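Methods, example record. To illustrate the input and output format used throughout this study, we show the complete record for Manganese transporter. The sequence lines were provided to the predictor; the line carrying structure tokens was produced by it.
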Amino acid sequence: MKKVVIFFAAILILVGCSTKKENDKPVVVTTISQIADAVSVIAGDRVEVKALMGPGVDPHLYKATQGDLSKLESADVIFYSGLHLEGKMLDVFEKMQENDKTVKAISESIEEEKLLGIEMDAKLYDPHVWFDIDIWKTAVHQITDTLSEKYPEYKNEFSENEAIYFKELDDLSTYAKQRIDEIPLNQRVLVTAHDAFNYFGRSLNIEVRGLQGLSTESEYGLKDVRDVVDFLVGNNIKAVFIESSVSDKAMKAVIDGAKEKGQNVKIGGELYSDAMGKEGTEQGTYIGMYKHNVDTIVNSLK
Ligand SMILES: [Zn+2]
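The corresponding predicted structure is encoded as:
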């Protein structure tokens, strides 16, 4: 008799546990953490969010692992950035789309005329859209729309979260503009390893020079290094910046080249370009990483 009671008690405990399972929540899987952060802000704890690409990861070169594929398989919604940012994952997204899942490129809703074209081919656009706060709001709104359509019972909640967040993003935009204005006009040049900051530059009125092109896939040559060195020396620029997801080798070559020409150039600091900081830290959020970049740039160039 006692055994039977224990048996039923065990079953009750098991049943009790399973109804409280966390994984009852819809699962949203994203590529870069910038998107995961936006999903967490909009959906709060209504969904479980997983980002495939953590700190220091370069999305241009990233290939999905076996573990990623099973995460994507079990996802209810998949968000990726698009515009060929995740250049090695396009076939994966296509395959997932066949499975009747919601798969969205968040750059899809951005008007073409707001995008920066890549020279040579007008049909290719710069994928680093998160660095223009206004454009990023359009991408975030795409997340709100997609989740509201999929989970209409939370539509109002998602909209309210978006309204609060947009106010914070507007404040961030004001802060960034005010801070960049502290840099004297003749020093307002951002030199980085790869060309991730063109939207940043356009929206905040700072000239941008990348050594490596829009994707880290393209190699830089000696001529690229020489051009940047000449530019730094010619314009008396005192600092260049490294990126958390790109090797600092190229920037070191630039600094050495400038030194040979008698100009001391320092590393102004590490910026978050395509990846954000560690989860749970301020720089692991979109607003925190943006602020970090602005402060690092301004403090080195002003
Ligand atoms: Zn990039």
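Annotations derived from this record:
The pocket of zinc ion is lined by residues 60, 128, 194, 196, 273-274 (CB under 6 Å).
Residues 9-21 have pLDDT under 50 and may be disordered.
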